[in-house]
Specification:
This protein is about 30% helix and about 25% strand. The chain is α/β, with parallel strands linked by helices. It folds into four domains: about 90 residues, Luciferase, domain 3; about 180 residues, Rossmann fold (3-Layer(aba) Sandwich); about 80 residues, no CATH class; about 100 residues, 2-Layer Sandwich (GMP Synthetase, Chain A, domain 3), CATH 3.30.300. A hairpin with a 2-residue loop joins β2 and β3. α8 packs across α9. It is globular and about 70 Å long.
């Protein structure tokens, strides 16, 4: 390696970071609610009723949850499950847990019965606060299948050998058996002195565990990721800076806050700035557009496939979205005829649930020249290194390897795994992502190490291929994988779900890809699927291993 510098880059010192307040969830809530007062913090529609909470309401409702939890006997560090879509009670539950000194455990409402059982067993929650029904799922019935005594015992009397820590369950949408109605649960705290919540909340420190989130489980069962108050609070403060939002931020989102990214982006981006949340419980494109128009949303937070679904909705050209400000005009959504904005989304970014969202970024307004196609620079208090995946040695600047990170927002650990088995000797977490750094201290991400396709001696990032093909008219969902091939090593194959009514041909999509991709990156095959043929994770990612098997079987069947 000679005198070539090594691939290790540092963010600024944490004490130099501006715009950061209290470093506990409790402190963040107190500060934003004191500043917000009677301004609207969120709006939500249910059964035709418009529900609006001010910042003062949010604080009051969180304190009600905290009082109820303390009345249930929760203590410092008690894990409390929150199984809800994006609705007001999700926020009051998470912050109520924080005020009561507990650990808010965010559970995915996309979970199947098997996944739900795994989350309950792995998390070790003592209290479950849930939304009883989400679309066609009845979580009360699913819980009773796992532990039948839920149907027969009284609230607070659960004593399960399957779920040995679980004692209390409260549900929005009605209770029965051991499941307590939401209103009855809240009334448990009516007799407690408000001073008790204050005293308990004051015991919480930035080093205490705050939240337990689960990975999406694209290759295995979801892992529980425990994060400290400091990590989560820092990110909530930072998203205002990342987005450059102000009090005019009215952020629509239907993406579950049980994903750390959506939690930070929407809650941090809007409420830290003194704005408000426009909540949608589940993503329905036509309803979402009407909601944005009615509530004069200025910001929309969605996954890539959702932008396309919004643009394909039947009312797309009928709605007035002229209030939109924090929307990137390069998106299909940003090109709506009523939207006029020059805001740019901070897409130059990298992060993981293990660092509770973003660890490297260029905030909105950074020039393309400075970004240079990178994923930004390390955030304050964070350090990256690029290592050889086999030896763990740091590689020279510019050379590819595995991204490893350590610092102030790094997780406390995976539940059930010793920390020394997760971090290296220097305290770095190996992310499993491929990338490199340049001489300017910028980080570049090129995809998952185990997803990189090796074809004809060259490396192909499926993310790059997907980004190119996603722009092809008529493509609704697409994902690229490598399948074994006798001479090439792996064959580049893209699976495509067309929009309803779209007529797509394999040759036309390959020709479209050739316009922006090098020849070796162009898929050798494009296969078409119905959406229900592709199993997805809760974050709407197609499970890579499953897709690889499905594609290989299709090709084999074709001979």
């Amino acid at each position: 390696m000679g005198d070539r510098p090594l691939s290790i880059i540092h963010g600024p010192p944490l004490d130099e970071e501006a715009g950061v307040g209290a470093l506990t969830l409790n402190g963040w809530l107190e500060q934003v609610c004191a500043a917000g007062g009677e301004r609207e913090a969120l709006v939500f529609y249910e059964n035709g009723e418009r529900i609006s909470w001010s910042y003062a309401d949010l604080m009051a409702e969180a304190r009600r949850v905290a009082s109820a939890l303390l009345a249930c006997g929760t203590g410092k560090g008690t894990r409390v499950g929150v199984l809800m879509t994006n609705r007001p009670e999700f926020l009051s539950a998470v912050w109520g847990v924080a005020l009561a000194g507990g650990v808010a455990t965010a559970l995915n409402t996309f979970s199947t019965a098997t996944e739900f059982e795994h989350l309950l067993e792995a998390s070790g929650i003592s209290v479950l606060l849930m939304e009883r029904r989400v679309l066609k799922k009845d979580f009360a019935a699913m819980l009773a299948e796992i532990e039948p005594q839920v149907r027969t015992v009284m609230p607070g009397a659960i004593a399960s050998t399957r779920l040995p820590f679980l004692r209390h369950v409260a549900a929005i949408g009605g209770g029965e058996g051991a499941i307590e109605d939401w209103g009855a649960f809240l009334s448990r705290g009516d007799g407690l002195s408000p001073a008790l919540v204050d005293v308990v909340s004051a015991t919480v420190t930035p080093a205490d565990p705050a939240v337990l989130f689960f990975s999406s489980g694209s290759t295995a069962k979801p892992k529980g990721i425990l994060s400290a108050h400091r990590a989560v609070a820092l990110q909530l403060w930072r998203w205002r800076r990342f987005y450059q939002t102000g009090p005019d931020a009215r952020a629509w989102s239907a993406n579950g806050f049980f994903f750390s990214g959506n939690f930070g982006m929407a809650i941090g981006g809007a409420l830290t700035a003194g704005g408000s949340l426009v909540l949608q419980s589940t993503f329905q494109p036509e309803e979402a557009l009407d909601l944005m128009a009615c509530e004069k949303a200025t910001m929309a937070i969605a996954w890539p496939h959702q932008w396309a679904q919004l643009a394909a909705a039947p009312n797309w050209l009928e709605v007035d979205l002229s209030a939109m400000k924090y929307v990137d005009p390069s998106h299909a959504f940003g090109r709506h005829p009523t939207i006029s904005t020059d805001w740019d989304e901070p897409m130059s970014a990298y992060g993981n649930t293990e660092t509770f969202t973003i660890s490297s970024i260029y905030e909105s307004g950074t020039s393309m020249e400075e970004r240079a196609g990178s994923a930004g620079k390390p955030q304050p208090g964070l350090t990256f290194k690029i290592v050889d995946p086999l030896t763990g040695e740091i590689v020279p600047v510019g050379e590819p390897g595995e991204i490893a990170v350590k610092g102030v927002t790094l997780m406390m650990g995976y539940i059930g795994e010793p920390l020394d088995e997760t971090l290296d000797e220097q305290g770095f977490f190996a992310t499993g992502d491929a990338g490199h750094v340049d001489a300017e201290g910028r980080l570049y991400w090129s995809g998952r190490l185990n997803d990189i396709i090796k074809t004809g001696g060259a490396n192909v990032s499926p993310l790059e291929v997907d980004a190119a093909i996603r722009k092809c008219p008529g493509v609704k969902v697409n994902q690229t994988v490598g399948v074994p091939h006798d001479t090439l090593g792996e064959l580049v194959v893209t699976a495509v779900v067309p929009h309803e009514g779209a007529v797509l041909e394999e040759g036309a999509i390959r020709q479209f890809a050739r316009e922006t991709l090098a020849s070796y990156k162009v898929p050798r095959r494009v296969l078409f699927f119905a959406e229900n043929e592709l199993e997805t994770t809760g974050s709407a990612k197609i499970k890579t291993a499953d897709l690889r098997e499905l594609v290989a079987a299709r090709i084999a069947a074709e001979g």
